[in-house]
Amino acid sequence: MEKIKHIFNNHGDLLGFAGSTLCALHCSALPILLAMGMLSGLEWMESHWVEYAFFISAVGLAGYTILRSYLQHRKPLALMVVCSGFLLFLIGIIQHNHAEIGLTTLGGVLIAIAHIINWRVQHSSKLAVAQ
After folding, report:
1. Domain that residue 39 falls in
2. Are 61 and 9 in contact (CB under 8 A)?
3. Number of domain units in the chain
4. What letter does residue 75 receive in the DSSP assignment?
5. For residue 13, which of 5, 105, 115, 125 is within the disulfide window of CB 3.0 to 4.6 Å?
């Protein structure tokens, strides 16, 4: 249990960035690959429960890492970007039309960017304390 806690405390932004990037790739590339027949038999990947799983895991991981960091450094940029990403992603999931792909992809990209911002702010404040 301590090892898992250590990973989330020290590498949460890396995990969040990787997951959000995977989510954005899933949202943008999957419909094209399915339409081309390159992933025939994997239609389940386009189901809404997969999108909900991405959303719930993104909210859990980003919520934990970014909110925890914000409470330490009080710089709101990453928090604002991740909330915008969550909102766009959620609107995209709810839409179920042609705008869904763009909104969910943009939401995933914003969540990934928020993790990068959070990582940079967190590490720059650690460097300032060390000096």
Report:
1. 2-130
2. no
3. 1
4. -
5. 115
pLDDT of residue 86: 94
Q: What is the pLDDT of residues 30-50, one digit of tens each?
A: 666 656 665 555 555 566 777
d(CA 45, CA 25): 12
Q: Rounded to an integer, what distance in angstroms lies between the CA atom of residue 27 and that of residue 104?
A: 6
Question: Cα–Cα distance between 86 and 76 in angstroms, integer?
Answer: 15
Nearest CA among 47, 29, 49 for reference residue 38: 29
- Using left for φ > 0, alpha for ψ between -120 and 50, and beta otherwise, residue 41 falls in left
8 Å CB contact between 29 and 67: no
